[in-house]
Design goal:
Blueprint lengths: L5 E5 L6 H14 L4 E4 L2 E3 L3 H10 L5 H4 L2 E3 L5 H7 L6 H14 L2 E5 L7 E3 L2 E2 H8 L2 E7 L4 H10 L3 H4 L3 E5 L6 H10 L8 E4 L8 H6 L1 H11 L2
Parallel strand pairs: 1-5, 1-8, 2-5, 3-4, 8-9, 9-10
Antiparallel strand pairs: 6-7
Amino acid sequence: MKRAPLFITGTGTGAGKTTLTALLARFLRQNGQRVAALKPVCSGDRDDAHALASALGGDLTLDEINPWHFRAPVAPVVAARREKKRVSLAEIVSHVRPMQKRFDWVLIEGAGGLLSPLCEKTDSRDLIAALRATPIIVGPNRLGAINELRLTLAALPPAKQAKAIIVLMSPAQTDAATRTNAALLAEYFEAGRILRLPWLGQPVNWEAVLKSARVRQMLDIGLGL
């Protein structure tokens, strides 16, 4: 049976989507899985796509990971308009579908938050629906996270809310909000689908992170391995 793609979205820009996508890719590959990690559309630099390329160890080219790149550091749809280019939802889906045949897992990273426009009349919510993907919502584990995560969840269709996974990315310095957010969020959302990752470092020492029993256990639970 073909596994549904995992779509990594977030509460906004800088939430930790790329770090989590790279972590998932490295973890799954370490466990003998064939993995594709994609960022179909991006604008500004291609640092996120390069990070995913590194996580995949050369299994995909940069242009396979990120087929649509626009130079201006603004929303992708605006950047594309400046270059007089267009991307359609159908084109993105057509790029992702063959990956599902080639790989055991397909990870897709969105751009910005859930409702940030990716291309004309299309945002990450539309792409999640078109791909029948399982949403993973990433948010910084800080004061304000509960509101941001609940708003993002509320924007998903009910069927996708029921399957969504929430990942709280801890900061370098924890505080009262960091320590209590997961428990408070569990009053509104199934506790078994809330993952609280520790601070992974900046830059990330991937070898050390992947040896962490705590991180591995959380990923095992989150991915249902």
